């Protein structure tokens, strides 16, 4: 044990610890003291012939995302994460290896093995959690810890989650929405639903096909959501030209859509988020609920950038709602803080270390 500890310390001198927000849509990597150094789509390009990741394992992230919906028959651009959990073990491992190597370029003929903290949805099963741990270990990590996304988001947003006060976090990501009330470093009540940004894109795609007989891809749907999407009425409603393929004729076409109709199309996934918030509040102990009346809730994740979603949630719950200063990076920044204070926060994590 003493020798193992000495070796671990020596490796730590040349290794860079890494915090990872392993998201369904995007993966962010944080280094303590440096901040976010990587933010790329969670996409991998593979050969359909043998399942090999293209470009010697480097066709990951931004490069692979450019291929979505545009690949020939021999290549597939794959999202290995579905609903916040691993859908393809081998491709997720290849993606993690790519990001770890991108941080740790080879020195003196070897790649130092880092300690890694990975933020994952709170609602995943022990088997799914173990899959994440094993993937990171096989991808080159020396030690692996996982932290629930709401905790990481709360830490990254600057909330005092280790103090005896109720902190409510709503993290609307790509594959999941995580709602939690946290006090003294632990979760008092929570709800994890697999409804989030990707579902919003899907409802826009369905709306286009149902209303206009136009088929659009996921990237176009996301652009529509970002450009004119909203949860509450806008002071000045917007319009946007959308291009796609006509479902009946098969020919390329274009139409003009309004923010009003996109808002109505997004109603169902937004209501699912509100229901998750209400359910979490109903399960919250009274004293912590009293704190939330005063402190309100903090929104993080890409979904919190939807226009007016904070106002809509405020109207539905009658509680103060604010969007974190940098909602896209809150979870990743939280993993970096955890690595900085690992000795203090270790008890709030899950690890790959099994008892002897």
Secondary structure layout plus pairing:
Blueprint: H1 2-14, E1 18-22, E2 26-31, E3 35-41, E4 44-47, H2 54-57, H3 62-65, E5 75-78, E6 81-82, E7 85-86, H4 89-103, E8 115-120, H5 126-138, E9 143-148, H6 149-156, E10 167-172, E11 177-183, E12 186-193, H7 197-212, E13 214-215, H8 218-228, E14 239-246, E15 252-258, H9 259-265, H10 267-282, H11 286-295, E16 297-300, H12 309-317, E17 321-323, H13 330-340, H14 342-345, E18 350-351
Parallel strand pairs: 1-8, 8-9, 10-16, 16-17
Antiparallel strand pairs: 1-2, 2-3, 4-5, 6-7, 9-18, 10-11, 11-12, 13-14, 14-15
Helix pairs in contact: 4-5, 6-13, 7-8, 10-12
User: How are the strands ordered across the major sheet?
Assistant: 3-2-1-8-9-18
Major sheet description: 6 strands, mixed
Average pLDDT, rounded to a whole number, is 88
Q: How many strand segments?
A: 18
The structural class is alpha+beta
What value does the Rg take, in angstroms? Answer: 21 Å
How many helical elements? 14
Low-confidence stretches: 1-14
Specify the overall morphology.
flat
Helix content: 25-40%
In total, how many domains does the architecture comprise?
4
Query: Can you tell me the CATH architecture of the largest domain?
Result: 2-Layer Sandwich
Task: Describe the model.
This protein has 356 residues and is an alpha+beta fold. The protein folds into four domains: 123 residues, 2-Layer Sandwich (Nucleotidyltransferase, domain 5), CATH 3.30.420.40; 36 residues, no CATH class; 89 residues, ATPase, nucleotide binding domain (Nucleotidyltransferase, domain 5); 71 residues, ATPase, substrate binding domain, subdomain 4 (Actin, Chain A, domain 4), CATH 3.90.640. The chain contains 14 helices and 18 strands. Helix 6 crosses helix 13 and helix 10 crosses helix 12. The longest helix has 16 residues. The termini are close together.
């Amino acid at each position: 044990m003493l020798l193992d500890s000495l070796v671990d310390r020596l490796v730590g001198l040349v290794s860079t610890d890494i915090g990872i927000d392993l998201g369904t849509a995007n993966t962010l990597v944080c280094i303590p003291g440096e901040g976010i150094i990587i933010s790329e789509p969670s996409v991998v390009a593979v050969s359909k012939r043998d399942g090999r990741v293209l470009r010697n394992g480097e066709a990951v992230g931004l490069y692979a995302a450019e291929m979505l919906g545009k690949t020939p028959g021999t290549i597939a651009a794959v999202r290995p994460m579905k609903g916040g959990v691993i859908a393809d073990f081998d491709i997720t491992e290849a993606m993690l290896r790519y990001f770890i190597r991108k941080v740790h370029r080879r020195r003196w003929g070897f790649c130092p093995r880092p300690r890694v903290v990975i933020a994952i949805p709170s609602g995943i099963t022990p088997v799914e959690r173990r899959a994440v741990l094993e993937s990171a270990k096989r991808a080159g990590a020396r030690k692996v810890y996982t932290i629930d996304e709401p905790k990481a988001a709360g830490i990254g947003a600057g909330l005092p989650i280790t103090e005896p006060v109720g902190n409510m976090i709503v993290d609307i990501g790509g594959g999941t929405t995580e709602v939690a009330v946290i006090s003294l470093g632990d979760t008092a009540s929570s709800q994890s639903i697999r409804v989030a940004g990707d579902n919003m894109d899907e409802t826009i795609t369905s709306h286009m096909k149902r209303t206009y007989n136009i088929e659009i891809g996921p990237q176009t749907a996301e652009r529509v959501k970002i450009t004119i999407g909203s949860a509450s009425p806008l002071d000045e409603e917007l319009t946007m030209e959308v291009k796609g393929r006509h479902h009946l004729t098969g020919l390329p076409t274009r139409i003009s859509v309004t923010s009003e109709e996109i808002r109505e199309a997004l109603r169902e996934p937004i209501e699912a988020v509100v229901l998750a918030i209400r359910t979490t509040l109903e399960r919250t102990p009274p004293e912590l609920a009293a704190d939330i009346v005063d402190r309100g809730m903090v929104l993080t994740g890409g979904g919190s950038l939807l226009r007016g979603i904070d106002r809509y949630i405020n109207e539905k719950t009658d509680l103060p709602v604010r969007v974190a200063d940098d909602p896209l990076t809150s979870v990743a920044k939280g993993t970096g803080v955890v690595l900085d204070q690992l000795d203090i926060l270790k008890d709030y994590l899950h690890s790959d270390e099994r008892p002897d």
